[in-house]
Design brief:
There is one protein chain. The protein is mostly helical. It is built from 5 helices and 2 strands. The chain is elongated and about 75 Å long. The protein starts with a helix and ends with a helix. The mean pLDDT is about 90.
């Protein structure tokens, strides 16, 4: 994943209204702009700007059906960010826990010999 892509994702997720929009779309796949705008006191235009930021970050996918635009959440970018850091840290912690396990087991064996 390119750094610019990650920046766009983090920027999109930094705003509370955009996180709320993602929650709305996640719970109502295929909803349209009016469905989302009904949850906010801001103007429909403001909601559309937030939707644009989410689409630019690839967090939302929209498809046009006639005059209607249906939206769906795309969790792949979030998953890629998650895997970027957790994979390394998971391996680090798994190794550390394995070391602790072996140390405890070796102490247990020494205690049985006495």
């Amino acid at each position: 994943m390119k750094p610019e892509s990650m920046d766009a994702i983090f920027q999109a997720l930094a705003h509370e209204a955009r996180r709320r929009i993602l929650d709305i779309v996640r719970s109502n796949p295929g909803c349209n702009v009016n469905d989302v705008a009904a949850h906010f006191e801001m103007s429909r235009i403001a909601v559309m700007k937030h939707l644009g930021v989410l689409e630019d970050a690839s967090l939302l996918i929209s498809e046009k059906k006639g005059r209607d635009r249906r939206m769906y959440i795309n969790t792949v970018p979030i998953q890629m960010i998650h895997e970027r850091w957790t994979t390394e840290y998971s391996a680090l912690w798994a190794g550390a826990l394995t070391d602790i396990k072996y140390k405890l087991e070796s102490k247990g064996k020494k205690g049985k010999r006495k």
